[in-house]
């Protein structure tokens, strides 16, 4: 409950400042940037973006029940959709909870209640956007302290869960080893349907498959200083890898 109150205070603060700034600086003119449709990573089960923005009542119930602290509320700085839930995958991805509690908690239908399993979600698609940063491709061992950023984020939460502690313990075990974090930490029940490491010898890379739901865990946990693998919100495997013809 404390977390949701902090999130609400945050977006109210930025909303107030933003509205005052617009009123003083531009009168009735509103920046097109604020009116554009959001392309942020939404929680599992999010309906199409325009419908989502119309249905979401900004209650924060999805945030409150998330056991990984994956969901946060947008403020005015982030554009149109102030107060709506989204996921910043570099901070904390979605861990594909089996009961999909965020969907169950949504009272408005902004998160589609027909979604019963996280692996059936279509949040986005993972992409090896910056292969030159990939530790696996460059045969660079996972560095010491690689998980500090994830530990720090977790420790800031008021009610760290056992699920988070278990995730961190598993992540810490990769230190000094060849990097396979994005594949081995994929939270799906059948991770090989979404991602695997391919290649020969010491040079391997992640390959994405159509089972990827765009949860963002691979982006969160990527041990490179800047993530080599990122999630494209709202896109499907077909959108990126089939229609565009991009090799995963």
UniProtKB/TrEMBL annotation:
Keywords (A to Z) from UniProt: 4Fe-4S, Iron, Iron-sulfur, Membrane, Metal-binding, Molybdenum, Transmembrane, Transmembrane helix
Keyword Nuclease: no
Limits of the 4Fe-4S ferredoxin-type domain: 46-76, 83-116, 204-234
Gene Ontology MF, one: metal ion binding
Residue stretches spanning the membrane: 12-35
Gene3D superfamilies the UniProt entry points to: 3.30.70.20
InterPro entries on file: 4Fe4S_Fe-S-bd, 4Fe4S_Fe_S_CS, PSI_iron-sulfur_center, TAT_signal, TAT_signal_bac_arc
Name of the protein described by the UniProt record: 4Fe-4S ferredoxin
Native source organism of the sequence: Halarcobacter ebronensis
């Amino acid at each position: 409950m404390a977390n949701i109150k902090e999130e609400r205070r945050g977006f109210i603060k930025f909303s107030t400042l933003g509205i005052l700034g617009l009123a003083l600086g531009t009168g009735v003119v509103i920046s097109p940037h604020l009116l554009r449709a959001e392309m942020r990573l939404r929680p599992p089960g999010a309906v199409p973006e325009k419908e989502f923005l119309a249905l979401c009542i900004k209650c924060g119930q999805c945030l409150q029940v998330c056991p990984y602290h994956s969901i946060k509320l947008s403020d005015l700085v982030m554009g149109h959709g102030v107060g709506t839930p989204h996921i910043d995958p570099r901070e904390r991805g979605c861990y594909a909870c089996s009961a999909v509690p965020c969907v169950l908690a949504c009272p408005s239908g902004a998160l589609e209640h027909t979604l019963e399993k996280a692996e059936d979600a279509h949040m986005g698609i993972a992409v090896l956007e910056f292969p030159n940063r990939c530790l696996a491709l460059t045969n660079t061992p996972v560095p010491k302290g690689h998980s500090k950023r994830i530990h720090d984020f977790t420790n800031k939460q008021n009610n760290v869960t056992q699920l988070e502690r278990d995730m961190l313990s598993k992540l810490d075990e990769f230190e000094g080893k060849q990097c396979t974090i994005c594949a081995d930490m994929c939270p799906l029940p059948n991770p090989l349907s979404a991602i695997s490491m391919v290649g020969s010898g010491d040079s391997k890379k992640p390959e994405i498959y159509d089972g990827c739901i765009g949860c963002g865990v691979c982006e969160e946990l990527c041990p490179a200083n800047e993530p080599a693998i990122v999630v494209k919100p709202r896109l499907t495997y077909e959108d990126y890898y089939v229609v565009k013809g991009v090799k995963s």
